[in-house]
Amino acid sequence: MSDRNIRLESAEKRAVEDQEVEIVERKGIGHPDSICDGIAESVSRELSNLYLERVGKVLHYNTDETQLVAGTAAPKFGGGEIIEPIYLLIVGRATKEYDGEKLPVDSAALRAARDYLRENIPELDVGTDVIVDVKLGEGSGDLQDVFGEETEEVPMANDTSFGVGHAPLTETEQIVLEAEHALNGARYGDDHPELGTDIKIMGKREGDVIDVTVAAAMIDQHLDDVDDYIEAVESVREFVTELASEYTDREVNVDVNTADDFDDESYYLTTSGTSAEMGDDGSVGRGNRANGLITPNRPMSMEASSGKNPVNHIGKIYNLLSTHIAETVVAEVDGIRDLQVRLLSQIGRPIDEPHVADAKVITEDGVTVADIEDDVVAIVDRELADVTEITRRTIKGELTTF
Amino acid sequence: MSDRNIRLESAEKRAVEDQEVEIVERKGIGHPDSICDGIAESVSRELSNLYLERVGKVLHYNTDETQLVAGTAAPKFGGGEIIEPIYLLIVGRATKEYDGEKLPVDSAALRAARDYLRENIPELDVGTDVIVDVKLGEGSGDLQDVFGEETEEVPMANDTSFGVGHAPLTETEQIVLEAEHALNGARYGDDHPELGTDIKIMGKREGDVIDVTVAAAMIDQHLDDVDDYIEAVESVREFVTELASEYTDREVNVDVNTADDFDDESYYLTTSGTSAEMGDDGSVGRGNRANGLITPNRPMSMEASSGKNPVNHIGKIYNLLSTHIAETVVAEVDGIRDLQVRLLSQIGRPIDEPHVADAKVITEDGVTVADIEDDVVAIVDRELADVTEITRRTIKGELTTF
Amino acid sequence: MSDRNIRLESAEKRAVEDQEVEIVERKGIGHPDSICDGIAESVSRELSNLYLERVGKVLHYNTDETQLVAGTAAPKFGGGEIIEPIYLLIVGRATKEYDGEKLPVDSAALRAARDYLRENIPELDVGTDVIVDVKLGEGSGDLQDVFGEETEEVPMANDTSFGVGHAPLTETEQIVLEAEHALNGARYGDDHPELGTDIKIMGKREGDVIDVTVAAAMIDQHLDDVDDYIEAVESVREFVTELASEYTDREVNVDVNTADDFDDESYYLTTSGTSAEMGDDGSVGRGNRANGLITPNRPMSMEASSGKNPVNHIGKIYNLLSTHIAETVVAEVDGIRDLQVRLLSQIGRPIDEPHVADAKVITEDGVTVADIEDDVVAIVDRELADVTEITRRTIKGELTTF
Amino acid sequence: MSDRNIRLESAEKRAVEDQEVEIVERKGIGHPDSICDGIAESVSRELSNLYLERVGKVLHYNTDETQLVAGTAAPKFGGGEIIEPIYLLIVGRATKEYDGEKLPVDSAALRAARDYLRENIPELDVGTDVIVDVKLGEGSGDLQDVFGEETEEVPMANDTSFGVGHAPLTETEQIVLEAEHALNGARYGDDHPELGTDIKIMGKREGDVIDVTVAAAMIDQHLDDVDDYIEAVESVREFVTELASEYTDREVNVDVNTADDFDDESYYLTTSGTSAEMGDDGSVGRGNRANGLITPNRPMSMEASSGKNPVNHIGKIYNLLSTHIAETVVAEVDGIRDLQVRLLSQIGRPIDEPHVADAKVITEDGVTVADIEDDVVAIVDRELADVTEITRRTIKGELTTF
Q1: Residue B366 sits in which domain range?
Q2: A180 & A228 share domain
Q3: What total of structural domains would you count in chain A?
Q4: Model confidence pLDDT, tens digit, residues A107-133
Q5: Do C59 and C311 contact (CB within 8 A), yes or no?
Q6: Closest CA in chain D for residue C61
Q7: What is D221-264 written as a DSSP string?
Q8: Are residues D194 and D232 both part of a single domain?
Q9: Interchain pair D67, C70: CB under 8 A
Q10: Which parts of the sequence bind ATP (chains A, B, C, D) (predicted)?
Q11: Binding annotation of A
């Protein structure tokens, strides 16, 4: 056992699953805020890989500030068009020169954004529907120095920051998360080209009744008329209702596009499948936390993880790591109903030695904290020791940040 | 008593003041994220007033997306200079025409930003040190219709959203909040022109020991050399230490600018008093919550309140209102050690009738929830009924959002 | 014969071909100014066609202000890269709404620019090497009204403006023009991928000696080393020398890339074949006149023809038309050594009735002005009557503007 | 006498004053193109002075590409407003670092633009009516090296370029130039706040009849109604008519704002006195030549002089110098009716030794070229020797470029 400062204590409250009211939200990948998160993180990966390839280590950068300015569209059944393009500004700092060699960070950022959009929001034609611009400054001299060491070593914390993770997900959380994944994934999406990527799902549980509210942008060219639209909305409703039953035995009510007003011929109809085409701006860190959800019932970090440097940005690393630790502990140790892991950094100490690693557990009936304490602490210790794995997996794109 | 759905229950956990570890943070008004919050909110007020003056009611807008791209500076003792300007992009939607009359929303937004900067970050010369740009689109047609009613009526909730507020502040929270106010206010600032506005304060309490870490940008032209700098840092340390003692009897340790490295001649020295001049980008909603703090020990809303339309943006209104209700209840009712008020909206119902108004209380020793229930519920009911007062006070600038 | 005010007079000076010193210049299609001209004109064609397709007539627009901000590149033998992208801002006015229908002018402009670049400067990867942005405002209300008539009618002149054209080209003019066409065309380009599109040719004739100076951007990926470069330069020199001999019997000296400094390893080496990648900005109307040349020995119009509305912009139409008339006259009438045609508009009169159509001729030996006057005037009259053909051919892309 | 290659020959044609048709144009200082010229040149001066002050010599820069994107305004009698701001993008190259010191070129450019606008177009409130943005890149490495020498030496020509100047001005040219100066100057402007700075004057002379067409933006806040407007227009007409009589005995007809349509209530009314507020974009080098006029009857250089580096940009220097020489010769030598001076550079030779200095003269009756040849050549020689004086005076702002 290491001498890391790891604490396990009882949470002394009810598990979120057992609280009276629970609220959960997820913004799908086509939501303007998520588009920004996705681009910021993809730019980050591209820069990490560029630096690794060119100079053998990741240099200083932070690209966590993409701003999306909504466009104007004229959707109509059968196929409308985008009138004014979406404007995307990639903002951040990056090291532009190393050992006398200039590094193409701007071009790399633009390429990453374009590739991300083509892969994830293919309905948007980059260059005509979306203008991608970039303003990457150079970081301050001091910060650039910090990255002199090789990435194999455990870097020092450069800030006082913290991360927090939870496991397991509640039923409501699972429904919200998995519904968006399924709708935007092959399971539903392959047969439903009319469903856009901008899907916002809110789950609200009061006691044993779960209300799931879905706002789903429909794509005009795949819908001939309002009947098609109604059918598409109903199809989403049925799908989510069925999917929810895989995760809960509670009563589930699903509503889709409740803001539609058929009298006013006002539907959630889009040309590109995202509200970014018309009126909804977006930016990084305003949506999902690192576990993919917004969970007001749980402590959350305000940190925008997407786009941050995964080598030394302690807030990003600790958010991803604490989530990973919580999930790992729950997977390996029986008897846990709710676990929160919080990591607090200390400036100037290696990041595998947090100031406090603070786990709050709610055990299942018949299990005590003492029963599981050694196992939990050992796992926390092991995963902390392996912190640089978080960096490696983030660079490879194996971990999501939103 | 109304038939509003107001619930009061015991929080069934320890008050934050009594938890083992507590973390609190505040980004001062000159922090890049706060600059964006401040501008977004000031643009919002300007637009509200423009619409009221021109057409007698507040039209549709949302200006909650200001993006700041950091500049480049060359600070030096005795006075350095800004080399490349900060770039500020005001983003949002606004109604640009009403009844055939064009409304100068872009010019109003630019004026608001300029006036805000001159008032709050006077060291920045707008136009040379800062470029302020603006991209305000028109909202979707549907949304514009929503605002057809007069603002005197209680508007309908246009989204499912929630707000959360707490009272009273813990000692650590008070110290963090008041220290920034005092440092940036007349109490300290008047005699200390060398202290910049970009002050970030983190409070960490473990048991009965409070560590306060201050990162304070110093302004070069008021410091002749490193000795002056050291003196300025020490002065902040002493001031905060003394101020903290007004709020707590616990042990308080204050550190200021811990990242300085005197061997490398690396100090937190700036030309303008904000790190936005060199390397730190910013955007709206990434910093302080509506009560001025980031409080990971408490449930927080991810909603960016700054810049949102105060007439009908339910997330903004409920964040401000729940904070106001919590403070009012604690001020009027004795025996409360910790109170959380959460408001959940329901689309299509008047905003003074939330789906749930959900208060969780921790009473002081000798007081039961039953003792105070009627009083608390009555106050919540009264303040909900008066919800449009939140709008009015926000437009007048009497409520802060960050 | 019409009653158009057509005058033919003797020029009373020596033909340019016979003057002692003659200077001629052409900026090739990859020159930053020509890139802007090309994009502006291609945006103009796209908008004309968009309007014709959607509403049956060309609405008000002017897109004659594209601005190019150079990028940064790191060329090297064997293949370098672009570090910071070129930024292209399309500027102008366009009608965005007609009869309640929104028209996608921004998207159309972006598409036109992208297509133009892909077709003409294929070495630039649009989206990573070039950012294309657009700011198209709405014209003033008055101007929009002007276009209410059908395009079949002859529109009224909306400005006092003039155009000027010449024929035939001198030997030096032909050499400069044709050399660029051949180098950038199939004749040379197909076998010489190492030659970029940014070719600037200056011809200077003193008496019977013609000096042709070529600045030709070479593309790094097709050149392994400096020997390859030297060979590529020499190849251009030989080609232009040979081509020149097709147009003149005078002595011709050709210099290519005279600014190279082999001692300093300073060559005209680029990654993309245009100096826009590194340091050379560009804008519309700063380069070639409507006949493809800059000819200080001849009167020129300062009008930027590229991007102007070809339906009613009198400066553009008269520049194209006067050039066309001069060429037609010289093709159909024998005995002309030098002809200048100048058209001056009069506000409020149909554009086929210029205030003055003023032709100055220098006849060949043995021919008098009187000999050819009737023929010349008849042709001028005929072509003026057919002025809308200029508009039609411009929209079809059959006429070049730079 | 030096061995400079100076040639004087007879122009062998009629003086412009004696030609049948003459056209002259001037865009006043508030015209969008002139605003760009003025800002570009003022940025240039600021950078020259910055470099001189900081490093003792002028470093490499070129800032000849300011782009203006028009705003939107809602003028009305008694006072309207600007709705969407004008956007000004300063574009160019500048040396940003020298001997390890960073130089604030961006801030300097922004300050210069702001000061220029405040001084010359005071009706525009910089920051709300106009957004000034800047994109200054670094020049290519080679070019930066060129400027290693001290500015006291005569620099080498870095390009093959030419400049052309004329004197004396014809009557029509004088009227056009002086009318704009007087209208925008104290003589008329002091008593006529209603007259904007965007004044475009076209002079057309046919034989002995001069038509002067003035387009003059009127400022709404100084005009209560259409009667005031009509009076203001008439006042300009009378003033220009009277002023013209100081320069000519020919018949002069003056028209002002001929595009007004009183039936449609369409006047040339503005809020700021420039059409840049509504629909008219602008850029550098599209308007007046270095002598302040557009003169299609005379050879003109296409070179945009404004914003170019006055130390080594040979096109700018030779345009200013040739104009200066022509004026000086005419001032000092009697008997010249029309003089054109053309200077052609040769790459790599000192700029005081042009490849050719080529003067074409038309003498007055009774004077032969031989009579004046020695005097003219001596003056040309003397002024060429003093070429660096052009640079010095340009940096001091004593020479205008548009």
Answers
A1: 6-14+160-169+287-395
A2: yes
A3: 3
A4: 999 999 999 999 999 999 999 999 999
A5: no
A6: D279
A7: GG--SHHHHHHHHHHHHHHHHHHHHTT-SSEEEEEE-TT-BTTT
A8: yes
A9: no
A10: 137-142
A11: 137-142
